[in-house]
Amino acid sequence: MPVIKIYDTTLRDGSQAEDITFTVEDKIRIAHKLDENGFNYIEGGWPGSNPKDVDFFEKVKHLKFEQAQIVAFGSTRSPRKRADQDPNLNQLLKAGTEVITIFGKSWDMHVQQALETDLDENLRMVAESIQYLKKNTEEVMFDAEHFFDGYKHNPEYALKVLKAAENAGADWIVLCDTNGGSMPWEVHSIFETVAGELKVKLGIHTHNDSELGVANALAAVKAGARQVQGTVNGIGERCGNCNLISVVPNLKLKMGMDCLDAKQMKKLKELSAFVDELANRSHWNHQPYVGKSAFAHKGGVHVSAIRKNRETYEHIEPELVGNQTRILVSDLSGKSNIVYKAQEFGLDIDSADPKVQELLEELKRAERLGFQYEGAEGSFELIMREALGQREEHFEFVGFRVIVEKRKEDEAPIAEATVKVMVNGVQEVTAAEGDGPVNALDKALRKALTRFYPELEEMSLYDYKVRILDESKGTSAKIRVLLESGDQNAKWGTVGVSEDIIEASWQALIDAIIYKLGVAPRHAKEKAESKPQPKLERRGSRFHLKI
Amino acid sequence: MPVIKIYDTTLRDGSQAEDITFTVEDKIRIAHKLDENGFNYIEGGWPGSNPKDVDFFEKVKHLKFEQAQIVAFGSTRSPRKRADQDPNLNQLLKAGTEVITIFGKSWDMHVQQALETDLDENLRMVAESIQYLKKNTEEVMFDAEHFFDGYKHNPEYALKVLKAAENAGADWIVLCDTNGGSMPWEVHSIFETVAGELKVKLGIHTHNDSELGVANALAAVKAGARQVQGTVNGIGERCGNCNLISVVPNLKLKMGMDCLDAKQMKKLKELSAFVDELANRSHWNHQPYVGKSAFAHKGGVHVSAIRKNRETYEHIEPELVGNQTRILVSDLSGKSNIVYKAQEFGLDIDSADPKVQELLEELKRAERLGFQYEGAEGSFELIMREALGQREEHFEFVGFRVIVEKRKEDEAPIAEATVKVMVNGVQEVTAAEGDGPVNALDKALRKALTRFYPELEEMSLYDYKVRILDESKGTSAKIRVLLESGDQNAKWGTVGVSEDIIEASWQALIDAIIYKLGVAPRHAKEKAESKPQPKLERRGSRFHLKI
């Protein structure tokens, strides 16, 4: 079982993505997480390029990592300069890491057109930079930028660059498909040729511009690569880098390579969600291996086959990467599905219980009305608990009124909501203005309830989706609103359906609040009792619903 | 240059994704778009599985497609039944398409455990189903479900199934990696072996569970596949299908295969955005080839190199797939795009005209606000005509007020709208109740205007979509409403953006009405003058907006 080293560049190449910014704090948290997950190298940044990265390396010096090594990244020395006087190289040494990676040109066109120097000088730049760093650092890696394109245009020169790096003492040479345009068979055959010419350990760095980032990395491993560079969730400039969250399970579970251990593998889903959270992106539901939908099954045929043998429709056991099989609630065909679902929620229920039959009837009725519980498992759990007599009433609805008024074409409309609820036998009437009718409703409702339930302050609204239901002839169009809410421990989806968008939103909002007050504390308790979980950081106003 | 047939299953396998629902109208619009883009086969649905798909095939019978063939999808006959008495097969024939695809089992474990029948009976099911369909249909394809997994477990039996299909007269056999767990080298070697054993044309159908959907399809083409099945943007169950929007440029631009022509290639980005729009998903910025960020460059080094030679950091010319280079600092693009777009609307405009520059500014301003004109070409044309001084004012907006009130938990809310407009110097104030606030607004507005413009009676509202815009930190969430309207001649999409959902709906509604009054008659006239067109069927009250 060959050992493959996992080299993460989420903090450097990943943060080049146009919509991603990490604070230094974010970077440190991610570095720790990567370390816990068993990643070998963590490229922290390019200290020569910006002060934030200098700051990161300064802070990281004082921190302990279990096994990962922090890497500083930079480029070869400038043309016609001495290596020991090159500010970029000295900045790298100042970062004080045990490992340094520098990139250099291996495509002749780039040397002449982008660098505007001659081919021999570039060879000297590579060699002298590595020699200088090697004198002062434990481990030095050389990233051969645009290697595959370079090799296609001028194989002789591209190889010369690698040999210069090898002779200068590089510990690793990493072949980069910088523009992401190579095909897997090209990567495989070029890599194999190179491996035959060199003795140094080789790595691979790919990009996803042809949707082949993962495939190209694997092709290189087949041809002898012993290090894979990439980012968590494939984030990065343009179409992103090779996605390590997919590469790792492919290496480990499909190719039998040695990288993360089984316990670390089980934390891949968590790592993936964590990085998205800090990057302020919603997690990709369909993400291979770790997405919420990756092992979700609907359709009676699939579900009954899955029950007989999970291998029928699952390429791996989802638990190996911390994921799980989901039987989609919309296709509730029978009692056994309900029992299965109830167990997921930690509810003890027997399929012989007459309540299960009642619940089935209730669900069928709701689905006929247009309710759908995919993505609204919070509402589903509320229905289930209600049927089991476990739903607590924290307040009673009396009424609401919403007014939206626009008086001039170039004036923003005014949205105002009045809400009446009964709490502990007392009628509360509150009103609020909002950025839109639903925002106004939300504000008025919180105003009425927070006095009694201060924990509502912890709840944020993350997402709001509206769909017009495909009306069958004759019936009137209905609207389904899906709301995603959460607190510091968890997220939950709720649903509302009505011909009126305001009412549908209202229903979903009420469910979200009831969940927060009645169900969320139970799950938080169960979770805390099973094992300690790191708390999600609360992001302030970002998630406020403004509609 | 081998010809590769592109087989799209967005409307069938794609719509299995848990978060995607297409209406029959959506499906028809997508089918036309795929046809224009040069896709060869369009799998429309599984008529045996649900009434919506039956409806789709009924409607599609009366429509004309330029070159694509519509395909009905289903399964082999049930065990121990006669093929000619199998309701599923007969339902397929009733769909009346020239091409039918059926799937069948090729993995022995599936035959025995999922189908619960014996291996020989499965061979008969495959053979007899194909024979029966072949008697009544032009072209029959056989999808060998789980072929690669089946072959790995029992190669002899898996091949037997394919031979049964070949001998029964299948025109194509398509090898499916149903669970998406295969590696590209496995797909390549198994495909090559199979190709050596059979004479029939072979296709490939892959899934993305290992983030290798595209790579696996290409590996099969390298081994002899002449048809690739997949979906637009890779949408589909679990982690999705093979993404045709990436496969096609890889085939055409990287492998030199013959599929779409150069003009159709240029519409890939538009197609990709269009399908996401109808699926109510935001377009993936980092999507290979067609994403907004796919050719976006930041960082001084990249940008200056790009200016010298685009090949330095771009693996293809983005224009080949309808995309463009974006330099993130100073994003100058566009005049030629606007002229191109104007020509599509039959507008005569010269790129030297200063109005083009004004229009560009206006569009940039609107895009910053969150407007987006993919799927809202009606609004786009209005902006364009306004810039050219061709927008007619039929009425003047004064104000509106909407009230939604709910007084008891089990009582439907009341929605009421008041609208003030000036028509021909006269102020009209009207009020109406509706099924929801937007419906009430729509009714009140029509009440005010129909007296002056009776042709508004011809206009129906077909669809209404709402999206919360993914905003960068600090700014408040905005809502985009997309409305689809139409009359007996055409359909048009309009858009509104606001923090208030009612106002966003109002904007889209106003645009739809202005388009109906000012633009629709022009196009109807042009159309009538060029060639007679079949009239779209008028949809009565079914499409009334009730929200």
Automatic annotation (TrEMBL), chains A, B:
<comment type="pathway">
    <text>Amino-acid biosynthesis; L-isoleucine biosynthesis; 2-oxobutanoate from pyruvate: step 1/3.</text>
</comment>
<dbReference type="InterPro" id="IPR013785">
    <property type="entry name" value="Aldolase_TIM"/>
</dbReference>
<dbReference type="Pfam" id="PF22617">
    <property type="entry name" value="HCS_D2"/>
</dbReference>
<keyword id="KW-0028">Amino-acid biosynthesis</keyword>
<keyword id="KW-0808">Transferase</keyword>
<dbReference type="InterPro" id="IPR036230">
    <property type="entry name" value="LeuA_allosteric_dom_sf"/>
</dbReference>
<keyword id="KW-0412">Isoleucine biosynthesis</keyword>
<keyword id="KW-0100">Branched-chain amino acid biosynthesis</keyword>
<dbReference type="Pfam" id="PF08502">
    <property type="entry name" value="LeuA_dimer"/>
</dbReference>
<feature type="region of interest" description="Disordered">
    <location>
        <begin position="524"/>
        <end position="547"/>
    </location>
</feature>
<dbReference type="GO" id="GO:0003852">
    <property type="term" value="F:2-isopropylmalate synthase activity"/>
</dbReference>
<feature type="compositionally biased region" description="Basic and acidic residues">
    <location>
        <begin position="526"/>
        <end position="540"/>
    </location>
</feature>
<comment type="similarity">
    <text>Belongs to the alpha-IPM synthase/homocitrate synthase family.</text>
</comment>
<dbReference type="Pfam" id="PF00682">
    <property type="entry name" value="HMGL-like"/>
</dbReference>
<feature type="domain" description="Pyruvate carboxyltransferase">
    <location>
        <begin position="4"/>
        <end position="266"/>
    </location>
</feature>
<dbReference type="InterPro" id="IPR005675">
    <property type="entry name" value="Citramal_synthase"/>
</dbReference>
<dbReference type="InterPro" id="IPR013709">
    <property type="entry name" value="2-isopropylmalate_synth_dimer"/>
</dbReference>
<dbReference type="InterPro" id="IPR054691">
    <property type="entry name" value="LeuA/HCS_post-cat"/>
</dbReference>
<keyword id="KW-0012">Acyltransferase</keyword>
<protein>
    <recommendedName>
        <fullName>Citramalate synthase</fullName>
        <ecNumber>2.3.3.21</ecNumber>
    </recommendedName>
</protein>
<dbReference type="GO" id="GO:0009098">
    <property type="term" value="P:L-leucine biosynthetic process"/>
</dbReference>
<dbReference type="InterPro" id="IPR000891">
    <property type="entry name" value="PYR_CT"/>
</dbReference>
<dbReference type="GO" id="GO:0043714">
    <property type="term" value="F:(R)-citramalate synthase activity"/>
</dbReference>
<dbReference type="InterPro" id="IPR002034">
    <property type="entry name" value="AIPM/Hcit_synth_CS"/>
</dbReference>
<dbReference type="GO" id="GO:0009097">
    <property type="term" value="P:isoleucine biosynthetic process"/>
</dbReference>
